[in-house]
Amino acid sequence: MSKYVNNKHNDWEDHLQAVAFAYNTAQHSTTGESPFYLMYGRDPVFPIEKILHPDPSNDTAQDPHEWKHHLTTTIQQAWKDAADHTEIAQGRYNRGANFGAQPVDVKPGDLVVMKNFKSK
Q: The pTM is what?
């Protein structure tokens, strides 16, 4: 966002909506999906897409109950897939964070240093 604001940095709120939309429609590496897709069960439709590919005729309109079932199924599957991707990402993060860590061998009866966080 710093590339788009003016030199005084006092017009950042003018760009916030576009930045939020870009963030919400971008695929996230942790979930494998965009927040928009996980929320609405579909990707956003941009105006240019409507111009290049206008809607088909209304003869092929889908039954609302079928659409509801399709949308519900799509969102549930997307959430399940996102949870699986998140679990894999957490495993990668944990392996990286714990790389080279040595387990602490503390047994009952060993003396340890304990910090007292209570205010005096």
A: 0.66
